[in-house]
Amino acid sequence: MTQRRTGGRILIDNLLAQGCDRIFTVPGESFLAALDALHDTPEIDLVVCRQEGGVAYMAEADGKMTRRPGVAFVTRGPGATNASVGVHVAFQDSTPMILLIGDVARGDRDREGFQEVDFGAMFAPLAKWVGRIEDARRIPEYVSRAYATACGGRPGPVVLILPEDMLRDEVETGDRPKNACFAQAADPLAVGAMMDLLKGAASPVAIVGGVGWCKGTAHHFTEFAERIGLPVAVAFRRQDSVPNDSPVYAGNLGYGPNPKLVERIRDADLVIAVGARLGEATTDGYTLITPDHPGQTLVHVHPDPEELGRVYRTDLPICADMFEFAELCADWEDEVIHFDAGAEAHAEWEAWTTPKPREGVVLDLGQCVAAMRAKLPADTIVCNGAGNFSGWWHRFWRYGPCPSQLAPTNGSMGYGPPAAVAAALRFPERTVVAVAGDGDFLMNGQELATAVSRGVDLLLIVVDNGAYGTIRMHQERDYPARVSGTNLVNPDFAALARAYGGWAETVTVTAEFAPALERAMAEKGVRLLHLKTDVEQITSTTTIARLRGR
User: Fold this and answer.
1) Cα 438 vs. chain centroid, distance in angstroms?
2) Rounded distance, CA 106 to CA 76, Å?
3) Can you tell me whether residue 166 is helix, strand or coil?
4) pLDDT digits (tens, 9 = 90+) for 119-153
5) pLDDT in tens, 473-528
6) Could you tell me whether strands 5-6 and 170-171 are parallel, antiparallel, or unpaired per DSSP bridges?
7) Which residue of 137, 180, 212, 249 is 20 to 30 Å from 242, comparing CA positions?
């Protein structure tokens, strides 16, 4: 199209051309021209949220699920600073995302105008690229580049700054077609070298999940791993990367992993990392596998050459698209020795993830997760933010095919409810559950209003122990019995959910949970179960008394 259009109209037309079908927003006066264009664009679903943190989390979650950029649109100043939390999640989680920010008029820059912020400086360490569009004629170019940058190499967030007056300009310009996806093929010689390393290995292990992972990748890599009996562990909060019922699935790394899996990783002579960055959480502070990993050979497969060798000494770097690499492995004809370790590791995981009743515990979260496993579909999408509460689900829940786990690897609180809204919109036919701690929930609980307004079906489980539990755990380890700043006074979460228009019940003992879950699943719309737990049960593996006893 070359007829005269406003910058706002050109922006929306080019987002549409790149495949955008949903935008999450809190409206602002700085981008009224774009909102006006959306009025006439039914192909794009505009999701109006209640706070920009929720906006950014929803866009990031949408990018995780679709593997194309989730799009957030916020205003300058407070809007952008609120949204920055989701940009950080997208960066550390390698999620394609585009944050659009309406900004001050071009002629008012550098005067510290109303809500003015230097976004180039602010977002430089948080995003892959920050672009400012000064000329409406170049909007198609910038939007195309934003999509290419967000999806290319190691995916991540892009920020586009849109001066208010630029969006109102009427100009003539042509639109750009949808970017073609580029996938780096795996080098057969490099994969052959990896197969030779496997032939000489005594105790190999794979650590998978992360950038570029999809159902097809999971299928092909699992087929390969099962054929040779290779134990497959998953990186922190990437538990849907491999079917959990695979006979070689070894469990998850991160916080509170199976001690036998930790021992297996330490004893491995060959580590094959596929898609994972081997970040701090996955490697327990770079100690489970050290950057120089003496006595271990490291094969690192990643689509971004800048990631290979950046932190870890890499014996065999393979720069490739995850699907291309996994497919080549699955089709590899040269026989590789079969290992018994895969079956052994899976049996250890089965034992670790079977919840046993905890004596003297009034509300046993392990048994609650067991009840959920018995009741909910295998493809349920489970969303959570940060907090010790998540450990029960990370340990005892059986995750289905990806995407079925939405959780921030950067440990960001408040993520679960917004992510669940995004999931319920993207997959209305699937069961969606948000699990949140009490402190975690109140960071973005206002997005219940968004959920109710959109009429989505989702279940929220709020674990209320009256504390910032993770910080209390660290506090008890370092300063036993000196509680400071971690106690919380909470509202009646069930009443709060009803006030928003949802259905809710409170659960105080283990025996109440399964019947309450049954009633919740018989309802439609937003449902909330308020679980009142004892802070003494601080994690799925220990108690405050034990921490103090150390």
Assistant:
1) 20
2) 13
3) helix
4) 999 999 999 999 999 999 999 999 999 999 999 99
5) 999 999 999 999 999 999 999 999 999 999 999 999 999 999 999 999 999 999 99
6) antiparallel
7) 180
- Comparing CA positions, the residue from 247, 249, 289 lying closest to residue 268 is 289
Per-residue model confidence (pLDDT) at position 112: 81
> 16 to each of 19, 87, 139, 426, how far by Cα in Å?
5, 22, 13, 17
Structural contact between residues 228 and 197, judged by C-beta atoms closer than 8 angstroms: no
Query: Cα(first)–Cα(last) distance of the chain, in Å?
Result: 70
Residue 333 pLDDT level (bands cut at 50, 70, 90)? confident
Residue 184, CB-side half-sphere exposure with 13 Å CA sphere: 17
H or E element: which one contains 260? helix 259-267
| pLDDT above 60 (res 1) | no
Residue 97 parent element (H or E) = strand 97-103
Q: How far is residue 130 from each of residues 58, 106, 118, 133, 157, measured CA to CA in Å?
A: 20, 17, 11, 10, 9
Closest CA relative to residue 436, chosen from 386, 478, 474, 485? 386
Distance CA 65, CA 441 (A): 22
* CA separation for the pair 27, 497 (Å, rounded): 25
Give me the residue label for tokens 């109209």.
9
The most confident of the ranges 14-18, 276-280, 533-537, 538-542 is 14-18
The first and second tokens of residue 166, run together, are 């630029």
As a whole number of angstroms, the distance between CA 439 and CA 73 comes to 27
pLDDT of 334 above 80: no
Query: Could you tell me how far CA 263 lies from the centroid of its own chain?
Result: 27
Residue in the structure block whose two tokens are 């009646």:
492
Token pair in block for residue 524: 């439609």
The answer to whether residues 137 and 2 touch, using CB atoms and an 8 Å cutoff, is: no
pLDDT in tens, 399-447: 999 999 999 999 899 999 999 999 999 999 999 999 999 999 999 999 9
Query: Which residue's structure tokens are 């690499």?
Result: 325
All structural domains of the chain = 5-171 (3.40.50.970), 188-349 (3.40.50.1220), 353-549 (3.40.50.970)
Phi, psi dihedrals of residue 521, rounded to the nearest 5° = -75, -15
Q: Are 126 and 88 in contact (CB under 8 A)?
A: yes
